[in-house]
Amino acid sequence: MKGAIVAVTDIKALNAKFPFHASWPRPHAARGSLITDRAHPQLCAVPTRKEAALSTQFRKRFDGPRLSAEEAARQGRAARLAWERMPEKGEAVVFLNAHDAGLGGRPIDLAVASDAGLRAVEEAIAARGA
User: Fold this and answer.
1) DSSP 8-69
2) Could you tell me the residue ranges of all domains in the chain?
3) What is residue 108's predicted lDDT score, i.e. its pLDDT?
4) How buried is residue 121: exposed, middle or buried, by Cβ count under 10 Å (0-12/13-18/19+)?
5) Phi first, then psi: what are they for 47, rounded to 5°?
6) Whole-model pTM?
7) The dihedral of CA 11, 13, 14, 16: what is its sign?
């Protein structure tokens, strides 16, 4: 694409033209001005696969285990119930993440692990909230 002149009137057209998001400062100000490869070569050059891979090379990757839909639903239900029943700031977070001797573990882990664990956490929240 070197040497080509690309006329773009707005950002949407620019983003539609190129496969990668083109975020750029607008030194040329007015909308509708021409963007050429001579004036803004970084906007008109399409990155190669190698260049695209290098730009994502140092991103943080989430390599931990993912929750299943059922586990995520149990986690959300326990968290929502804790926040509803424990209105003090941070009380629900501390309860869910701290080891509970009565439950024998962290409430959030127990709730995610099984339906029985979720019921035990719900009962503990109800006992604390009352």
Assistant:
1) --SHHHHHHHSSS------TT-STT--EETTT-HHHHPPPPHHHHHHHTTTS----SPPPPH
2) 5-53, 69-129
3) 95
4) buried
5) -65, 145
6) 0.52
7) positive
